[in-house]
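WARN  no MSA supplied for this record, continuing single-sequence
INFO  ligand: adenosine-5'-triphosphate
INFO  echoing inputs
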Amino acid sequence: MPGIMEMFFNLDIMAQAWPLLLQGLWMTLRLCAVVIGLGLVGGLLLALAATSPRRWLSWPVMALIDLMRALPPLVLLIFVYSGMPFAGVEMSPFMAVAVAFLLNNSAYYAEVYRAGLQSVPAGQWEAARATGLSKGQMLGHVVIPQAVRNVLPDLLSNTIEVVKLTSLASVVSLSELLYQANMARSVTYNSSPLVMAAAVYLVLLWPMVRLVSRYQRKLAL
Amino acid sequence: MNAPAGFQRFVEVFFDGAIIDRYLPDLLSAMVTTLWLGAIIIVTGVAVGLVLACLRSLQVWWLTVSIVMFADILRALPPLVLILIFYFGLPGLGVMMSGPLVLFIVLAAVLAAFCEEIFWAGLTALPRGQWEAGRATGMSFAQTLISVALPQAVRMGVPSLVNRSLAITKMTALGSVIGVKEVLAVSSSAQAMSGSATPLTMAAAAYLAIFLPAVIFARWLERRFSWKV
Amino acid sequence: MAQTPMLEITALEKRFGTVEVLRSINLKVGRGELVFVIGPSGSGKSTMLRCCNRLEEPTSGSIFIDGRNIVNCPAAELNRLRLQTGMVFQGFHLYPHMSVVRNVMLAQIKALKRNKVTARTRAMDMLDRVGLAHKADAMPSELSGGQQQRVAIARALALNPKVMLFDEPTSALDPELVGSVLKVMKDLRAEGMTMLVVSHEMAFAREAADRVVFMDGGVVVEQGPPEAIFGNPQHDRTRAFLSRVSHHAGAE
Ligand SMILES: Nc1ncnc2c1ncn2[C@@H]1O[C@H](COP(=O)(O)OP(=O)(O)OP(=O)(O)O)[C@@H](O)[C@H]1O
Ligand SMILES: [Mg+2]
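INFO  complex generated
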């Protein structure tokens, strides 16, 4: 029986797999950039709609958000990737993944923003209105900056979740980090590439996880 | 009825009655699998997280370091990476684990990591006076922890706890990758065999049936707990 | 035995790191006596009080309660020993997740191992004593500050302490609620409870205290009956403090 070092920390195999993983990492980062960038914007728009006093706007948006929160992201992904072609919508794997995760994540970001918007005291709205700001100015200069500051740790922790989420793209054969690592594993019959992928995720995300913990503790105190 | 042809085709592909009939029994039993997996993951994860937070409150340095490492690593790694390492890697060491077992261990551990952080944040947010009131009335550290501090920490953490439990339970869908016969796996293979998208619709409906009430419940809880402050 | 004081502090010192907060405190509280401690902020009043049930660890010196030195008491016995002193905090510190009566029952059950029925009966008696039996099933958040503090007193009394320690029990209260808490303390004194009270309620001290102790800079500067301390203080520091305090009181 081969030892743990041999099976999980085989440096030769890691060296061989590294170029493959690097390509995967690049794909992962591109995916993150798209999903996080658009998710941050889309989430804010959804949150503004969800907190709108107009019920014909807020209720359907709330329903959409809850729907997205109830569906596992992988189910959404499979649905978009394998289901949409049946409806005549062909998408590249990258597109399918981006669309599915964007739907999922905008909903999560929206929830975070919504909590932030609701944490801004009513007095702030009134003060802004009293000084003659327009609705847009009020939101852009007074309310949103405070809302975002109040939920920065949650935004950050959701962003961590997005990066982790991109690993699901491997299921639909998008050649991101985990897919590449798993390919390397199946070719070499050795788990070291997976361990190396884990290490890459750790390097990427550990600092952010620490930051979130520290942040949350400070808020609690 | 004179529905446009495109719409009719859409209904046929995504809501094919015959296919629903054929795969409904399989799907229902898969739902049961998803449900009990979710249940034992939540119970185990929350319980382990609670124990870890209690151990951390003892402030023994090597315990604290190990717990923080565990919580950090499991919160930083994508669960699918761990699932693949456990499922494909461990047999190389002679440790064979079934798909459901791997799924349970990984997701329960991930949930435990998050719960530990939530409980610990609650414990550190508790005013020092609460501890002092307990100790001043002659209660031991453990008694004060259990009767005074933890109930309040748990209460503070309930909304995050519910949201996190939901998020992790939804990840049981990852079991489809390692052959766990849960909802997504069953419907994916049905989709492949039948060549229809209807099983995927059924999967979505099944998850909504399970999780939509939970999401709505979480929303209600959150509102209730935020009023209390 | 009747001659020994209920609480006796000798040569008590406390340092936080290099900061000397208490330097050689000596103080006796006789049985049934109500001793009042006054002094400027930061003089170490709270620290002294907290040493008496070892919420703070004394650096050196001894503290005798009913003739037993609690400073060298092993940690294992600490919990039992803390039952002898009842502590009332400035911020009440009621448990917000428990009803009033459960607040008063908890330590009876956990620390004294009383059964639920006994604990509840005792709790109701104590609540009755502080005039709050009708609030037994309320949650702490539904009570006024004065009511919360009276519940905190009941919680301490329920454990049959030999000494009650009060750390500014009324300074977090609105003025109109102070009276109800002071009344409970006066009743306690009439029933013969030994009490050590840190407070700035000078009028109450004049009326109810057996002795007033003035602390400054971690030492007891002077002590004596209230008339002597308030009417004819011997030390400049006492005089300066009293004129400052009465100034404030007059300004209000
Ligand atoms: N845990 C601690 N660590 C370091 N210094 C402390 C600590 N607790 C108290 N001190 C310091 O000890 C000194 C005395 O504090 P203490 O609370 O006993 O004063 P006090 O007389 O009760 O004042 P106040 O009237 O404001 O309540 C203060 O200078 C305070 O800063
Ligand atoms: Mg003080």
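Chain B has a mean pLDDT of 89.
INFO  checksum written, moving to next record
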